[in-house]
């Protein structure tokens, strides 16, 4: 399955919306997006995982790497709206206590057209 990643930035924060599966084959695409995004030094990044069907350990490592880098820059990274399968991986690995996990993308991060 193809991985689609889109980033919307606004006023010092960014929402990274991911669609598809994050695995050994697709993780490099996500890594590239985080590398590009973190060059802009956003203060906060929210990862919208509402359309992620699957995420393996490679994908989790990409997320952890992004978290580490953004914290080094003084920023924050949150995970939003993980589906049950992804939430279970976060819980089993203990990463649900490493990331701030939201049930949905927080209202203040919803970027509407024209804003």
Automatic annotation (TrEMBL):
CDD domains the record matches: STAS_anti-anti-sigma_factors
Pfam family name, one: STAS
Source organism superkingdom: Bacteria
All copies of domain STAS, residue ranges: 3-115
PROSITE patterns xref list: STAS
Family affiliation: Belongs to the anti-sigma-factor antagonist family.
PANTHER family recorded: ANTI-SIGMA FACTOR ANTAGONIST TM_1081-RELATED, ANTI-SIGMA FACTOR ANTAGONIST TM_1081-RELATED-RELATED
Protein name from the UniProt record: Anti-sigma factor antagonist
